[in-house]
Design goal:
The complex is a heterodimer of chains A (94) and B (145). Chain A is 16% helix and 34% strand. Chain A has 94 residues and is of the alpha+beta class. The radius of gyration of chain A is 13 Å and the shape is globular. Chain B has 145 residues and is α+β, with helices and mostly antiparallel strands. Chain B has one domain: Cytidine Deaminase, domain 2. The model of chain B has no long low-confidence stretch (mean pLDDT 96). The chains are: A alpha+beta (94), B alpha+beta (145). At the A-B interface, strand 5 and strand 6 of A face strand 5, helix 2, strand 6 and helix 3 of B.
């Protein structure tokens, strides 16, 4: 039976709880996190990171293969804080 | 309407001039309370790389900013960056912003902010509820105070 627990997601200064299950895919967690904050960016541009800046969901900034793993495989713990942010923040006239 | 104190504006321009040296782009984030009180309290200058036509923010720095903002009860209210020539919102700007929530503002300063009146010729874009960046008059969203 899958274990369910809450983690915390922070985006631009606001932190919200999100219920996850140990067998849930991190891509699904990312999609739910994006919905929590009404983020309008394309999902493939976003990622979830630990406080140590380890990416646990989304496409890495080097545009390599998207991360596929479950909540359990990502090692998430109850109450853990994840950072929802763009994989790459950039700009310019180019 | 977001209040931008004069000292925040002056500090922002000084960061652009000292970091960009009139040769490279630069970016600053205007931070304020995560509340209905839309008042910029400080400019935050990220760790970033830059060329005359591009900048990119360090990912680890951004992760720590998000943690810091959550702990301080603050949010990025607007992003501000420079362009080499006239100001506008490029495709790179559209796709690489720091925040993607409706109403978020992106201010672009022309000429690497090296002109005496750096407010002249700025370009302000707002993210619409449809997810598109749209030009908007500065006076409709920013109040210099």
């Amino acid at each position: 039976m899958a274990e369910a627990f809450s983690i915390q997601i922070t985006y631009n200064g606001i932190t919200r709880d999100l219920q996850v299950q140990s067998e849930e895919q991190m891509q699904a967690v990312l999609a739910h996190a994006i919905g929590l904050f009404n983020v309008q960016q394309q999902p493939h541009q976003m990622g979830l990171f630990t406080e140590a800046n380890v990416q646990v969901a989304g496409r890495p900034s080097d545009n390599s293969q998207e991360i596929h793993q479950s909540v359990e495989q990502a090692g998430l713990q109850p109450g853990q804080l994840l950072i929802l942010r763009q994989s790459v923040v950039q700009g310019g006239a180019a | 309407m977001i209040d931008v104190p004069e000292d925040v504006w002056q500090d922002t321009v000084e960061i652009f001039r000292s970091c960009g040296q009139g040769r490279r782009e630069c970016v600053v984030y205007w931070v304020g309370p995560s509340s209905d009180d839309l008042r910029v309290v400080r400019p935050v200058h990220p760790v970033h790389t830059a060329t005359p036509r591009h900048y990119e923010v360090d990912g680890a720095w951004l992760t720590q900013l998000w943690v810091e903002l959550a702990r301080r009860g603050e949010s990025v209210l607007a992003q501000v960056h420079t362009h080499r020539g006239q100001a506008g919102h490029s495709t790179t700007d559209d796709q690489g912003a720091i925040v993607y929530q409706a109403g978020f503002l992106s201010l672009v300063l022309p000429w690497f902010a090296m002109k005496r009146d750096s407010r002249r010729g700025v370009f302000l874009a707002e993210l619409s509820s449809a997810g598109a960046w749209e030009e908007i008059e500065v006076g409709k969203r920013l109040r210099w105070s």
